[in-house]
Fold this sequence. Notes:
Layout: H1 3-38, H2 43-50, E1 57-67, E2 70-81, E3 84-89, E4 93-95, H3 97-102, E5 109-115, E6 118-120, E7 124-125, E8 138-143, E9 146-151, H4 157-161, H5 171-179, H6 199-202, H7 206-209, H8 218-269
Antiparallel strand pairs: 1-2, 1-5, 2-3, 2-4, 5-6, 5-7, 8-9
Helix pairs in contact: 1-8
Amino acid sequence: MNNGIAKVIIVVILGFIVLRSCNNCTNRSRRVDSTASSWQKTPVDKLITSLNNEQNYSIILLDMDSRGSNYYHMYNVIVEHPDTVLSSTTDWEEVPDAFFAANVDNMGMEIVSKKDGKLSKQASPAGYNHYVGNPKYGHWTERNGSSFWEFYGRYAFMSSMFNMMTYPARRSYYDDYYGGGYYGSRPYYGPSGRTVYGTNTYTSSGTGKSSTWGNKPSSFKQSVRSEVKRSTAAKSSRSYSSSSSYSNKTSRSSSRYSGSSSRSRSGGFGK
């Protein structure tokens, strides 16, 4: 084979490599675009952005609702300032079904908190991340052989706001939350697997019982839970199938290219 033919074959091979690389980049770009389009910014994301300059705050899931195939949250936002603590309640905010499903057991709890500039998105008992245990706001007191958190008079409203009139903050729970590796790492619903905090206990008495979600019949709540579970599972399955399909196509294409390339080199330089 003369040098002219060899050069032509090399050019063809290089062109094929460049074309294949471009196609792979395009496919990867499409996958990224598809993932980005399926992601939805939640009202909590927007609250976090608006509170970016605050060093200490809590976002509590105050109420939930479902209307048809749409899902809603209401939040209590608590922000600490040097000389006071401000509390505000949001309007009903529509949330993605996946976000609703992820927090369906977290009503009455902090679902986001920021303590000394450090953000946490792990569900925790309301008040535990900054106010309970903080000598600026109260102290531990002994009652009937157990230790409970008690807010000072000017902050007494926090007991009601954190539903502690119904479920007082026990020192043993507080120590378990921090000593058991829950803070900032995983949700905490109570010691030793007990469900002391969360939707079911919050809506069984006190403020939570008179909430919109608390007033819904059990059949309605169970139906909504099942619906969002199926919805999110279906979306996850479609996402996985799409990813798997792309991976398989890439693998098959690479295999075909590998064989073709090997034969071309062999034919071009082995004679």
